[in-house]
Amino acid sequence: MPELPEVETIKKELLENIKGKKITDVKIITPKVINCSPKKFVKIIKGTAVKDIQRRAKLLIINFTNSYNLLVHLKLTGQFLYQGKISSATHIIFIFRDGSKLLYNDQRKFGYIKLLTDSELVNLLAKADFGPEPLEKNFTLDAFKETLTRKKKSKIKPLLMNQKFIAGIGNVYAQEICFYAKVLPMKEVSSLGQKEIRNIYKGIKEILPRAIKYKGSSVDTYLDIYGKKGKFIPFLKVYGREGKQCLRCKKAKIKKITLAGRGTCFCPNCQR
C-alpha cells in the first residue's frame, strides 16, 4: 500500500500537471469505485476546475472550485496515471480542456474515490482522527515524546503504523525507522531510552523526506503519475532483506517475523 512518501509524490506531480485545469468530461467505467451514481458524479465534476491537491495521512484530496472534493484512497493497487494508456485496470478517466487525461487505475479494485462537499470532507477527516503529520514543523521531538507517554505498553513498530498516532507511516517505513534507530520493532515504548526515542524521531525526519526525494518505493504496484517506479528501493536497509547479511553490522542475517499481523524484518544483532 502506498505510504506517505508515495502519496506525497503523487500529490506533488498532480499539482504540477492538473492544478487550475478545467474538467470537460469524466468517463466512469467502474461505478463501484465511487460513492455516488455516475450521473451525479459527472454532473458535479464536469465543468469545474482543480483548485488544489492535498494529502492527509495516506489519502489524496483533490479540491475543486465548486466546493466539492475527491477523497482518494489508493489502497493496494490504486494508481493515477497522467496521459497514460487505457487498460483493463482503468476505472475512471478525467478529461481536461487542454486535451490531457488523468486515469484512475486499480487492478484489484480495493481503492475508492469519494465525492464530498467541503463540510462532508471536514467531518470525515475529523472522524478519522488522524495523528500529526510527521513532516510538519509542529511535529517536534517534544511533541513526539509527549504522545509516546500515552502509549507506554505499545510495541514501537505497530505504534508507528497506527494512523491515529502518526499519519502516513506504513509497514515499509516503520521497519526502516526501527532499523535506523537500532531498536527492535517489537520493543515496548516503556522500555525505550531517551537516545532511542531521539533516534526514532530522527529516523522519521530523515527517511521520509529522502524517500520523497526519490519518489517513493515501488515494492508492489506503486507507480508515479508518469507510470514510473519509485527509486528508493536501493536505499532500503531492512525491508524485504530476509536472510541477507545486515548492511550495517555485517555480522548477522536479517530476520523476519510476523508482528501485529504484518511481516517485519530486523537485524537481531544491530537492533536491541
> Spans of 5+ residues with little confidence (pLDDT < 50)?
none
- Outline type: elongated
- Main pleated sheet: 4 strands, antiparallel
- Using DSSP, what is the number of strands? 10
CATH topology of the largest domain: Helicase, Ruva Protein, domain 3
Number of domains: 2
Oligomer: single chain
The Cα radius of gyration reads: 20 Å
* Class by alpha and beta content: alpha+beta
- The CATH architecture of the largest domain can be given as Orthogonal Bundle
How big a fraction of the residues is strand?
15-25%
Return the average pLDDT rounded to an integer: 97
Q: Helicity range of the residues?
A: 25-40%
Listing every helix as H and every strand as E from the N terminus to the C terminus, the arrangement reads: HEHEEEEEEEHHHHHEE
- CATH first level of the largest domain: Mainly Alpha
Q: What topology, given as strand order, has the largest sheet?
A: 1-6-7-5
Count up the helices.
7
N-C termini distance: 28 Å
Give the helix/strand layout.
Blueprint: H1 4-18, E1 23-28, H2 38-45, E2 50-56, E3 59-64, E4 68-73, E5 78-82, E6 90-96, E7 101-106, E8 112-117, H3 118-128, H4 141-148, H5 156-161, H6 171-181, H7 194-213, E9 255-259, E10 262-266
Antiparallel strand pairs: 1-6, 2-3, 3-4, 4-8, 5-7, 6-7, 9-10
Helix pairs in contact: 1-7, 6-7
